[in-house]
Write a structure and sequence with these properties.
With about 700 residues, this protein is of the alpha+beta class. Strands 1, 2, 3, 4, 5, 6, 14 and 15 form an eight-stranded antiparallel β-sheet that branches. A seven-stranded mixed β-sheet has the order 7-13-9-10-11-12-8, with no helix packed on it. Helix 4 crosses helix 5. It is globular, with a radius of gyration of 35 Å.
Length: about 700
């Protein structure tokens, strides 16, 4: 009887399954029915066949993966897919800084000239804190006139990098007009391409990088840039149909900066390595307007895979919110997070504008020059004609975390101090993983998960989270300050009440300077505070009846009319125990009145006070401001502070206002960034408590 032959299964993927499949197939063949497949010779042959099959399957799987951007792993494949989307990955970029330069001619230098030029690409050294000096160059040419005995250059932009220049001769050997830049450290934003007519004709034309194919004509002097397999770059020109093609005999010059990337950030000291204007070097004083920033590494494959499809979707225009975010993140690698919202969502509403807030990698503020540069780039190249972009700074809200963390001492050999360090590290991990971006949502429960999972001995946590705003106090003039948290705040006149730090220096009623704090007035008011008129209605002949319904008792009010409309509603009895109230207007033969009720518990009063040396609290101003707990708005009325007490925690003249949020989840809003100041030792105050 013939033996049924086993089918050769072609879906097996792992080595052992392939080998066993081959054995079963051969055993079913009449030629091998009595053969010992475990014998060494045949086993080796089967191993070879299985390995070969396994390799082929693995390689074909890899080839399949590399055919798609989402699954590709090799940088070369990812770059190739991105190229089809007209996406050029961002290169490494050197840090940028602004410096002020004062040049005073010495006795050995020309003191009679009245103007001085600081040439583009003048070289400097940036002195890093680790002792390594990194090369910088000036980005623009600056000419100033003498002021007194000195030349003063203000806000000079310098960038990290060494200037490199390459030249290529156009001839019959480079018909594809493609030229390599042999450096992996090139800053592609610094590339300048010029084409000289010939060695005898010095007429030079500047070529710019093409960004929008729809705007390129046959005569457009543009070039394209792409990353090579070796992570270097090449540039190439058009073909006289799409972009102007340089002619034989033309000389192409490529100038760029070779840079070290992000390690050049945070440099504040600079010195020139060559004379200014070719002569002045004796009395040159340089001060940094801002420490160097914006140095970034080459765009990673993960960033390319994420950004390229969005860039392709935008088609180089800014219409939707995602368009703005994608284009800005692509063009400015030092931007870490972007928030965009329309004027209709702004507070206050401003139609015809789109608002953009940008968070940089180093949390520094963009200068007005940089904001205008980004705005002009959007308006001139990508923006909808009737929409004006407006760039505003991020609004930082700092978290203060305090409370108790319990642990079982039988489950750990660590002491309180070591456990406390673990908890602090877990809190910082939560901030790093979940916050520090415009789109971040704070969840107290998730923070507690980080805390309670950082060590097996930790059994629970009881923490309070306060939100902190920092305001710059005018120590010269009397001012009213409006501080918007844009979240509900908790009315807590006792343990978790509003606090301020450091002490404000203000005058009391007798004109004596006092070191004062601000706090909530501890009153438990639960009645009706006021009734606001949103619409006065129509055709009222007599004063209508005001009826107040809610879960409280005793509130009454009367209305007065003017010109057929309700002009005013007066509270005659605020009542008690209201957590909500509804007002009904009836009678008076009119209609259409709309009102809004404000409860006393929704608003609080702030006061200033100081302590005597014996600890006695003395009130200075019983009505120093107000706090709206629903909207999270604090108003400090006509505050006249002559200064703030010195402290080691915050910048000079900054007052911090700390209060607990009313909800354990804080959602993102416009330009708000929730974060924790790791440099502030007051930001985390945790006490470890051993379970009894």
């Amino acid at each position: 009887m013939a033996t049924e032959k086993a089918a050769l299964r072609i879906t097996e993927l792992d080595f052992l399954s392939i080998k066993e499949n081959l054995k079963q197939y051969l055993r079913s063949q009449s030629e091998f029915q009595d053969f010992d497949f475990e014998g060494s010779g045949m086993s080796v042959l089967l191993d070879v066949l299985a390995y070969n099959t396994h390799y082929m399957g693995y390689y074909l799987n890899m080839v399949g993966n590399e055919m798609f951007l989402d699954s590709a792993q090799l940088r070369n494949s990812i770059i190739s897919h991105a190229k089809l989307m007209n996406y050029v990955p961002g290169s490494r970029q050197g840090a940028l800084s602004r410096i002020n330069i004062n040049v005073t001619p010495s006795n050995t230098e020309d003191a009679n000239t009245n103007s001085l030029t600081l040439e583009k690409y003048t070289r400097l050294l940036g002195q890093d804190i680790d002792g390594v000096n990194y090369p910088f160059v000036t980005l623009y040419s600056n000419t100033v006139s003498k002021t007194g005995q000195s030349f003063v250059f203000s806000n000079v932009y310098v960038k990290q990098g060494e200037v490199s220049t390459l030249q290529y001769l156009i001839d019959a050997t480079n018909t594809n007009r493609r030229f390599a830049i042999p450096s992996q450290n090139v800053d592609t934003t610094s590339v300048v391409i010029t084409v000289q007519e010939s060695s005898s004709n010095t007429d030079v034309k500047l070529y710019t990088q093409a960004t929008d194919l729809t705007e390129v004509t046959a005569n457009s002097m543009v070039y394209w840039l792409e990353e090579n397999d070796t992570q270097t770059y090449s540039f190439y020109f058009g073909d006289d149909y799409i972009g102007k093609r340089p002619k034989d005999g033309n000389i192409v010059t490529c100038t760029y900066l070779d840079n070290v990337g992000s390690i050049s950030n945070n440099i504040t000291g600079f010195t020139f390595v060559e004379p200014i204007g070719g002569e002045y070097s004796d009395n040159v004083n340089i001060t940094s307007a801002v420490s160097s920033y914006g140095g970034v590494e080459k765009e990673s494959v993960e960033q390319v895979k994420f950004r390229a499809p969005y860039f392709y979707t935008t088609q180089n225009r800014a219409v939707t919110q995602n368009d703005y975010e994608t284009l800005i993140l692509k063009d400015y690698n030092y931007i870490d997070s972007v928030s965009v919202w329309g004027g209709e969502d702004n507070d206050p509403i401003v139609y015809g504008k789109v608002f953009i807030s940008l968070k940089t990698s180093g949390n520094f503020e963009l200068t007005n020059f940089e904001k205008e540069r980004i705005k002009e780039d959007l308006i001139q190249k990508r923006n909808v004609l009737t929409v004006t972009p407006e760039i505003i700074d991020p609004e930082y809200v700092f978290l203060l975390i305090e409370g108790n963390v319990t642990y079982n001492s039988q489950l750990t050999s660590l002491d309180d101090s070591a456990l406390n360090s673990l908890v602090r590290a877990a809190i910082q991990d939560y901030i790093s993983d979940e916050l520090n971006r415009f789109s971040s949502t704070f969840r107290k429960s998730k923070l507690q998960q980080y805390i309670e999972n950082c060590d097996p001995s930790i059994t629970g946590s009881d923490i309070d989270v306060h939100v902190q705003k920092r305001i710059l106090i005018d120590t010269v003039n009397t001012r009213t300050y409006i501080i918007k948290y844009n979240m509900p705040l908790r009315q807590s006149p006792h343990k978790n009440k509003l606090t301020t730090f450091p002490e404000l220096q203000v005058f009391d009623a007798a004109g004596v300077s006092r070191n004062a704090f601000i706090e909530e007035v501890p009153e438990a008011l639960t009645g009706i505070d006021r009734i606001e008129i949103l619409d006065g209605g129509r055709n009222y002949i007599s004063a209508p009846t005001v009826t107040i319904n809610g879960d409280g008792n005793g509130a009454t009010a009367t209305a007065s009319i003017l010109g057929g409309r309700i002009d005013k509603i007066t509270i005659t009895n605020p009542g008690t125990d209201y957590s909500y109230a509804i007002v009904t207007i009836s009678g008076g033969e009119g209609y259409g009145a709309i009102t809004s009720v404000k409860l006393q518990s929704e608003e609080g009063v702030l006061r200033t006070f100081y302590y005597k040396t014996n600890g006695e609290k003395v009130i200075i101003n019983q009505n120093a401001g107000t706090i709206d707990y629903n909207t999270g708005t604090i108003i400090l009325n006509s505050l006249r502070a002559t200064g703030l007490t010195d402290n080691a925690f915050y910048s000079d003249d900054y007052l911090t206002i700390n209060i607990q949020a009313d909800e354990d989840i804080i959602y993102p809003l416009r330009n708000r960034i929730l974060t924790l100041d790791t440099n502030d030792s007051k930001s985390i105050q945790i006490t470890m408590v051993a379970e009894v």
